[in-house]
UniProtKB/TrEMBL annotation:
Protein name per the record: galactinol--sucrose galactosyltransferase
Keywords: Carbohydrate metabolism
Endoplasmic reticulum as UniProt keyword: no
Keyword field contains Ribonucleoprotein: no
Catalytic activity: alpha-D-galactosyl-(1->3)-1D-myo-inositol + sucrose = raffinose + myo-inositol
Family according to the record: Belongs to the glycosyl hydrolases 36 family.
Lineage: Eukaryota, Viridiplantae, Streptophyta, Embryophyta, Tracheophyta
GO molecular function, one term: raffinose alpha-galactosidase activity
Source organism: Anisodus tanguticus
EC annotation from Swiss-Prot or TrEMBL: 2.4.1.82
């Protein structure tokens, strides 16, 4: 249980649980205790100014000698993590910050509990706040409207703080408290997850980029199906729409992977590449011939990269006008972006906010009539740069997000939407419905620096993004030197699992460790996040730390360990780079309590013992309470460990489910299990010191292949759906294995019984 925080300003210091976090807090900083259900444990930071302006910078106090982790936008579209110890380490555009301190309310004690304090900069009215640092080591609140006509001289609820002893609970409680205050967004737990997240998918992007064609879609689906791994959802990415460019012929049009950023949408239907067959026919073929369940298509929040053509045939009624982006100083101070360079010259065709619902609704209604089930909505943060004349960035973004979600609710009943390039709080705090969010910058198969960065970024970003939506850790190539590394991260991360393989370029052996024969995946239950001991170290840059990612399945926990060292975003050259070409081999340790909720998973009476299954090595080890296991990895190596709490099921007989041993997320196969004793007594009441009891362990299991459990003595018999089955038992490790056949029905749950 998170302890009730004690947050106050005393003698010019911001104090949390007796420990000073910020010194020299100025007189114009106001601390307001939270009030109302869910808010009582936190406090708001506000500030006042002598005059009204559209942009303010408020120093809040000096931060020194205190470890923190923050998430900041290193470029307009995306966040990544940064660790530091002083105010000057806080980057521009910081949208989330977690600070570590000790509880000193009862004096300085070595055994004092660690206190985790989260800072969430918020939206207040038409203004957006972020954090940043300065050379005096002051934390600052940067507040702006994005419209010169929208001014203020104060903000009372600019940053929400919450503190306690469990960092994951502190973050969760804070976002839910802000949800109650703002009433403009919903927490992830209240949102309907689209069905695609439990099925394997294929996206056309890295296979074709914008050169995608109807024939290419068919080739990709056929190629994967022939290898026995059927995609059950399909994303037709950028390249299917009608677009045009009014720029003069001699203009140097910016092109990246085929996307011409000055192009604008000229119609809501498919382009010539898809017109021969017709989009509807392409979708029907995918579903009929290749058993695809769900088809999504890509579009930008503004229609296309360059918006909508103001005079496009049939588009006139959207009242589109050319607008020229103006980026926030914080974004400009981080990484420049070639998209913005292009649009600053050519402008963007902005649909009038009062007409944008009509635009989305007509686009989506047409797509739905073609059998499309959802959309990947990209380039979302562009809207924040166009707020001038529309009440500012927050107002315009909210208009667009609300219109988008209303149209999706009307046209795609499965809540079919993936939000992309949308890592700004303008949108996150305005979304009541969108349930899937791309968690980081793209997967770049040809950029050697990107792979370790990708895994660390999606993990840390999920600490914050995972409170709003289910993080999507992006597509990857199954045939690539880093394929298994990426695959393991997706399996542990609870992410949708989909690839962007070119037709004929697949690693089916790897894919079958992720995908069951029916095309479903064994998805972990939560957003994958760094373990507690990784929160304030830097596994991408410090040269000493491995990244540990924890998650849970229905009956077991899982920890993925990754060596992500060697590359990161550089604040000097303002882009990602390799800073260590040959990172060393590193060692860490793992234990059951790395899974933050394992005690809840185990239930009452658990003594702390667990069984650990190491996916790559295949080892099974019983770990006493508090024991740990060392892990040593080279760069771009990984291991996945499944922890299963040990339960005594009969006199001197203990049991722990493991799962499908050849699937990366092995434990995801076990839906539930229960113990039936031979006596009248119930499991929670029986006394192991009494007479010898026999028991039957019943499990519900999904999938097929080698299934394993731990049991401390050889069972009497095993059955699958009532039929006795052959099993193998290892007396040394306690591993019991059996073979489960391929089920005839999708998502089928086998009934496995083990009699002991």
């Amino acid at each position: 249980m998170t302890v009730t925080p004690n947050i106050s300003i005393n003698d010019g210091n911001l104090v949390v649980h007796g420990k000073t976090i910020l010194k020299g807090v100025p007189d114009n900083i106001i601390l307001t205790p939270g009030s109302g259900v869910g808010l009582v444990t936190g406090a708001f930071i506000g500030a006042t100014a002598s005059q009204s302006k559209c942009l303010h910078v408020f120093p809040v106090g000096v931060l020194e000698d205190t470890r923190f982790m923050c998430l900041f936008r290193f470029k307009l579209w995306w966040m990544t993590q940064r660790m530091g110890t002083c105010g000057n380490d806080i980057p521009l555009e910081t949208q989330f910050m977690l600070v570590e301190s000790k509880d000193t309310t009862e004096g300085e004690r070595e055994d004092a509990p660690t206190i985790y304090t989260v800072f969430l900069p918020l939206l207040e009215g038409q203004f957006r706040a972020v954090l940043q640092g300065n050379e005096k080591n002051e934390m600052e609140i940067f507040l702006e409207s994005g419209d010169n006509a929208v001014e203020t001289n104060q903000g009372l609820y600019l940053v929400y703080m919450n503190a306690g002893t469990n960092p994951f609970e502190v973050i969760n409680e804070a976002v839910k408290a802000v949800e109650q205050l703002l009433e403009t967004f919903h927490h992830r737990e209240k949102k309907k997850l689209p069905s695609i997240i439990d099925w394997f998918g294929w996206c056309t992007w890295d296979a074709f980029y914008t050169d995608v064609t109807a024939e290419g879609v068919e080739d990709g689906l056929q190629s994967l199906s022939e290898g026995g791994v059927r995609p059950r959802f399909l994303i037709i990415d950028d390249g299917w729409q009608q677009i045009g460019n009014e720029a003069p012929k001699d203009t140097n049009c910016v092109v990246q992977e085929g996307a011409q950023f000055a192009n604008r949408l000229t119609g809501i239907k498919e382009n010539k590449k898809f017109q021969t067959k017709g989009l509807k026919h392409v979708v029907e073929e995918a579903k009929r011939q290749h058993s695809v369940k769900y088809v999504y298509v890509w579009h930008a929040l503004a229609g296309y990269w360059g918006g909508v053509h103001p005079a496009g045939p049939g588009l006139e009624h959207y009242d589109t006008a050319l607008a020229y982006p103006v980026q926030s100083p914080g974004v400009m101070g981080n990484q420049p972006d070639i998209v913005m360079d292009s649009l600053a010259v050519h402008g963007l065709g902005l649909v009038h906010p009062k007409k944008v619902f009509n635009f989305y609704n007509e686009l989506h209604a047409y797509l739905a009539s073609c059998g499309i089930d959802g959309v990947k909505v990209d380039v979302q943060n562009i809207i924040e740069t166009l707020g001038a004349g529309h009440g500012g960035r927050v107002s315009l973004t909210r208009s667009y997000v609300q219109a988008l979600e209303a149209s999706i609710a009307r046209n795609f009943p499965d809540n079919g939407c993936i939000a992309c390039m949308n890592h700004n709080t303008d949108g996150l705090y305005s979304s009541k419905q969108t349930a899937v969010v791309r968690a980081s910058d793209d997967y770049y198969p040809r950029d050697p620096a990107s792979h370790t960065i990708h895994i660390s970024s999606v993990c840390y970003n999920s600490l914050f993004l995972g409170e709003f939506m289910q993080p999507d850790w992006d597509m990857f190539h199954s045939l690539h030197p880093t394929a298994e590394y990426h695959a393991a991260a997706r399996a542990v991360g609870g992410s949708p699992i989909y690839v962007s393989d070119k037709p004929g370029n697949h690693n089916f052996e790897l894919l079958k460790k992720l995908v069951l024969p029916d095309g479903s995946v064994l998805r972990a239950q939560l957003p994958g996040r760094p373990t507690r001991d990784c929160l304030f170290v830097d596994p991408a840059r410090d040269g000493t730390s491995l990244l540990k990612i924890w998650n849970v399945n229905k009956c077991t926990g899982v920890v993925g360990v990754f060596n992500c060292q060697g590359a990161g975003w550089c604040k000097v050259i303002k882009k990602t780079r390799i800073h260590d070409a040959s990172p060393g081999t590193l060692t860490t340790s793992i234990q059951a309590t790395d899974i933050d909720t394992i005690a809840q998973l185990a239930g009452l009476g658990w003594n702390g013992d667990s069984v650990i299954f190491c996916f790559r090595s295949g080892e099974v080890v019983r770990l006493p309470s508090g024991a740990s296991v060392p892990v040593t990895l080279k760069v771009l190596e990984y291991e996945v460990f499944h922890f299963s709490p040990v339960k005594e099921v009969a006199t001197n007989i203990s049991f722990a489910p493991i799962g499908l041993l050849d699937m990366i997320n092995s434990g995801g196969a076990v839906d539930q299990y229960e113990v039936h004793l031979s006596s009248e007594e119930k499991p929670e009441h029986f006394d192991s010191r009494s007479q010898s009891l026999t028991a039957t362990v019943s499990l519900k299991v999904r999938g097929c292949g080698r299934f394993g459990v731990y049991i401390s003595q050889r069972p009497l018999k095993c059955s699958v759906d009532g039929a006795d089955t052959v099993f193998n038992y290892n007396n040394v490790s306690g591993l019991l294995t059996m073979s489960i056949p391929v089920p005839q029905k999708e998502m089928y749950r086998w009934n496995i019984e083990i009699q002991v």
